[in-house]
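Record now logged underneath.
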Amino acid sequence: MIRLLAGAAALALPAAAMAQDKDEPIIIPARHVPAEEIVVVGGGSLKPTDGNSVQSAAILRDLDPGLGTRIENRLRDEGGLAQFRRSDGRSAHPTSQGVTLRGLGGNASSRALITLDGVPQADPFGGWVAWSAYDAIRLGGIIVARGGGSGVDGPGALAGTIGLYSDMTEGVEASAAYGSRDGVDLSGSAGTRLGDGWFAVDGRYSRGDGFVPVVESQRGAVDHAAPYEQGGLGVRLRFDAGDNSRIEASLRGFSDRRDRGTDFSESRVDGIDASLRFLHQPGAGVQWLALAYVQLREFDTGFASVAGDRDSVVPALHQRVPATGLGARVELRPAIGSAFPLRLGVDWRRTVGRTQEDYLFTGLVPGRHRIAGGSSDTVGAFAEWTSGEADEGLLWTASVRVDRWWLGAGYRFETNIAGPVITDAHYAARQGWEASGRAGLRWTAGPLAIRAAMYRGWRLPTLNELYRPFRVGPDATAANELLRPERLWGGEVGAELTSGEAHVGITLFRNRLENAIANVTLGTGPGNFPGVGFVAAGATYSQRQNLDAIDSKGVEFSADAPLGPLTLRASYAFTDARVDASGVAAVLDGLRPAQVAKHSGSISLSNRGDGPLGGFATLRYVGKQNEDDLGLQPLDDALTLDAGLSWRVSDAVSLEARGENLFDALVPAAISSAGIVERATPRTLWVGARLSF
């Protein structure tokens, strides 16, 4: 550890500061910081209140695209933040990239709410996140707010909210890089004024031959490198509409092609997102926002069945998932004196999707076909009051939200392609009410701040969890159309100490996620099981179930401090999560949830100067965790080092080199019931140039 930290310090030389939008910025505070320490972004919401200052939060700002950087990997620097797999969006299966915090996992659906300029980002059908979609947008900052229940963000914020905020480029910025395994990464952004408005276009293209996912000692004739090709293009327009009003329009599309390292395992994700927003922001009176958006997703993937000796492979399933997400939001903020402490609003989100699958292959010919899907709607109203500001004295906040939800009539139809129907099931529509909210206090006296919050949140099961059975290798998991919404009760207390540019924070939390949806192991093959059919010898049969609860408690620590010309940033989380289960899931009682590490964190060093040389180094650790719910398939811990150097040749041109997992540590990402280990990104090196004018 000492050697690695010393190497990180040696690499951390001066680097350029993040560019900021200069046109009517919106300032987004995440925690109590000095006045000059802010995130400036190009738009997306009304100016936030200080309500989130009663909970733990972090600002991520060094988000320059290109040269192989990935947003999902940058998020891994936050202690306690976990994606279902340790692989990133170049090699992970697209359905395994949900995000959670504080040990509230259970399956690959996100327990954290991810938004882009206020628009929910989870896949409408499955709840996972298409990280490659952000190739088509320039991000100015990310706010990671831990803990649920804020209400104003919408349902789904059980473990917290990850807010992505776009930045309107001024001028032209571009990068080009070449990396390991014939990797290519090209990105570009351009923005200019159009009268009283602003126009920006962003794009990115990346490809590579990829690496072999299976560890070397277990590979067979069927295993090969897993190539990827991804790209996106986005267009944004912002213009004044008079009377302190502004209209913002966004349209972006992306395309993602990946291979999982064997024949018949290709995946394709295509998406188009559009949003239209009207903001009215007078200095007095009523501020208001109106937003409408649409998400279109087309997901296509194959799954393979590999022989035990890994010398042969045949197709096991081919899946196509079209899905649509629609939504709207209206928010009002009446002026009370010179402040806007009250937020009132309503929002609506609808998801529609289905899975279309061919399976039970004989050679290359499928024997059966399945269609399953449905729809969901959520309409909610919220109110939040925040007194004062987080700088001095006592601040308190209280919010409440009430949602009405509907699950439309679901269905699953299975048939022999050349024969009779197997299943023709129709599931009754359901509906209900859910309430969520938060109450919190923050007391600030000079450099010290003490805060406390209690909250309740909820999440509706995804269409994928309700209606779609699936297989991973020989292991099969059945859907469950009777799943109930997840409900979270939680609380936290914390303290922060700020001195100049140095900041240290600590948070103690306790959460209870009732009705937690998990994949529960119910049997072992060989045999026929309901909802999935035949399961081979040694493979497992599971079903999505509502556990009684997941209880999670722990400690989070963060620190930012200047060290001469360098900046030190540290983040650590200790998470003790346990399953509370009875009935058919009683065997899980007291066990740790799958894919939850007890320890995780990072230490980063980067420059603080304006000289021509720059750099960074990040040491990242994730502790041991279990692949399965029974704890029989452990994934070892991993310690990795990323680092980079840059040389600004002129005001317009800089040269850069960076490396991922420089010591080529084995990062186990998954393990099958047969003991086959899949790894995450091995050592990857990049060299390239950036252009800005």
In short: Residues 1-43 have pLDDT under 50 and may be disordered. Residues 2-11 form the longest helix (10 residues). The domain at 2-692 is CATH 2.40.170.20 (Maltoporin; Chain A).
